[in-house]
Amino acid sequence: MILHQHKIVFAGTVGAGKSAAIKALSNINVLSTEAMNTDAASHQKIFTTVGIDYGELVLEDGTKVGLYGTPGQERFDFIWSAISKGAVGTVILIDHSADYPIENLNFYLDYFKAVSDNIIIGITHLDKRTQNTTAIYREWESANKGKVYPLFFIDGRVKEDVLLLVEALIANAEARLLS
Ligand SMILES: Nc1nc2c(ncn2[C@@H]2O[C@H](COP(=O)(O)OP(=O)(O)OP(=O)(O)O)[C@@H](O)[C@H]2O)c(=O)[nH]1
Ligand SMILES: [Mg+2]
User: Residues near ligand 1 with C-beta < 6 Å?
Assistant: First the structure.
């Protein structure tokens, strides 16, 4: 690895698995800012992030990666841009089982492409029953030719899945550095 300092931001919908992904990856106890969720309209989950999650991942070659989790709730969007400063990339996680995953994807992508030039998308909660099939993402890609980002289907709780996204982001940042 050429870059020795990495900061990676996890963004995306409420309940998509940002905090879970950081917990799955981190080699240290995650510093989390979860509180009781009072916004049942947006998600039925018990806890939601209200500040910043922080974890650290040490890659096989010793490279340290700082993992920064954002709150999904839009009322905390002032944290999104602040946290993105100096980051090498952004993982956007989208809960496929929500009612409007494509609208959510467009919303978070629109916001984060203004503050990050290295973005990767992870679609989560595919194991849940929903009226949408994964074909909606192929259709979305076809409709947005020329301005799509790498998109993976993952489980936010599974270390190997989220590690793939982090490694892809770092590889992309390094490729740019060398080109
Ligand atoms: N079934 C399923 N559960 C998942 C998946 N990814 C994450 N989860 C679970 O979904 C729940 C919500 O995940 P969180 O990590 O709290 O979500 P978050 O993105 O941090 O949400 P906010 O902090 O509220 O914005 C947790 O219980 C996770 O373990 C997945 O792919 N499938
Ligand atoms: Mg969270």
Answer: 14-20, 45, 48-49, 71-72, 124-125, 127-128, 155-157
CATH number of domain containing 114: 3.40.50.300
CA distance 69 to 55: 8
Q: Which atom of ligand 1 lies nearest, measured to the CA of 50?
A: 23
Higher-confidence position of 71 and 34: 71
Q: Which ligand is nearest to the CA of 43?
A: 1
Structural domain harbouring 150: 5-178
Tens-digit pLDDT profile for residues 28-49: 999 998 888 887 766 778 888 8
Ion ligand 2: residues, Cβ under 5 Å: 18-19, 49
How far apart are the C-alpha atoms of 145 and 97, rounded to whole Å? 25
Residue 73 region, left (φ>0) first, then alpha (ψ -120 to 50), else beta? beta
- Cα separation, 162 vs 24, in Å, equals 8
pLDDT for the residue numbered 3: 56
Number of domains in the chain: 1
